[in-house]
Amino acid sequence: MTKRINFINPFGSESYDAIILKTLSHYASEGTALDVTHLDNCPADIDFFYSKHMIEQSLFEQIMVAQEAGYDAVIVGCLYDPGVRIARELVDIPVIGPLEASFQMAAYYGHSTMVLTDHRKAVPYIYDQARLNGQGNTVRGVDAIDWFVKDMIHDRQAVAKDVVRLSKQAAERFGAETVIMGCTIIAAIYQEYLMDGGSPSEVPIINPNLMALKIAEGLADLHKKGGYQLARQGFYMQPTGHFKDEFDNARRVWNASKPQSAR
User: What is the pTM of this model?
Assistant: First the structure.
């Protein structure tokens, strides 16, 4: 049974699509059709929260379009998990956040973990997400390798070397057994480095792209076979009646206001 999965890079740039497809498609199960896409007419990165909120509006629309196009699951390819929970209000197919997926899968790799993210601004946000996901003392800490996404893609060897060096140092400092690679692009660069024969980190690295893919495949299977159904009585309640009419009208207005090239 074929599963169609859309990995959406939530950036207004195609710069990261190729490396995600290269490093992720190798791990896709037989019968998984994986497409990697990006957004149009929005900021090229989520280095700052203002950009994140601008991006989310375009992201919501693309997730709805993905369901309408017949995809069986969507992965939002950023460790901020932007818009993931809100998107579950909008669609019935599984919407996967790589950070949430990594937290859920980390126990299969070790007793404790920590997150090594890209830059300092992301550190407190990841701490907040760990609490939101109920991780308690399982996540021992968060640190950064001090790279911005727009820079790291052009110096992949340096990024991979920093991952190998800093993951061991950070794990020892926080007393963690494993490291969640806290940026989807860093994780892809490190995976490419391994695929090219590079020596792995001494500490097990949890790749959020792979975790998201495997959860997406599993939930897509369940959804296709009637075993996945979102609770619509509480947090993921959908608008009905005149609320649905208001939503549909707001979506039409939003799409009409976008430049023709973005439709």
Answer: 0.94
